[in-house]
Write a structure and sequence with these properties.
With about 300 residues, this protein is α/β, with parallel strands linked by helices. It folds into two domains: about 240 residues, 3-Layer(aba) Sandwich (Rossmann fold); about 60 residues, Histone, subunit A. Helices cover about 55% and strands about 5% of the residues. The protein contains 14 helices and six strands. It has a six-stranded parallel β-sheet, sandwiched between helices. α2 links the parallel β2 and β3. It starts with a strand and ends with a helix.
Amino acid sequence: MLAGPTASGKTAWALALAERLPIEIISVDSAQVYRGLDIGAAKPSVAERARVRHHLLDIRDPAEHYSAGDFRRDALALIAEIRSRGHLPLLVGGTMLYFNALLKGLARLPAADPLLRRAIDAEAAQLGWPQLHEQLAAVDPVLAARLAPQDAQRIQRGLEVYRLSGRPLSDWQADTDPGHAYRFVRTALVPRDRGALHAAIAQRFDQMMEAGLLSEVAQLAARGDLVADLPALRAVGYRQLWAHLAGEYSLEEAISRAVIASRQLAKRQLTWINADPGWQRFDPLAKGSVEVWMATMQTVWHHARL
């Protein structure tokens, strides 16, 4: 496994490893599963996919949903397939909820309550999702720390579970069983220089805009069947540019909001990693760090073949 915050260099490290080991990459990214979300999701290029086989890219239409449970099912099946070919599956991405579903399993949560969900949606319409995020933080600070103030779907579910059971969703999620016998080597990119990470995030978003991200979002909007609250369109960058196209604010403000949201996402990803001592951390900005990581993965490959 190779986790890390957005713009930390995970793809470059994985491609470097592919020069040494027969790996296949399983994407652990909640945006890359959607067709048409290419530039903003930082999908590997055609050339990069030609160098190493990638999985869980472009497997859903943006109008569809893809859950952590879906990811867990698909990833476990792919791990078995890749191993049967004599290759090493490398799970790469920054959607920590997906990693968690694979590592710890999924809790048996209370069933959805449509009436309660409508009531929560009505509150959000009146107060705004950031206000409901504050409510969630009061009853489930662990979960709230992992979520953006505009993450409507997960804020709604957190409040729903708490109001139904009186128990925080994070407590339910801790009561899980992996349900498989795999042992994963968990590595993560954790830059010590947060200022450098923030600069990389801003630079990458500028590059995405130059590559045509606004046109990509406009093409999605032109379909006519997509709405702003779909999971695909809540992805960072897409959400802000979609709002710009809807006339909510200027392009300059949309870009500023997207960069800020990307920084906030990186902070949540690092919070999740740093809260779990099971992750072996590497500073992507430190000299020789990638070589140390690749040596670690070569040792993993050696033991896997014994």
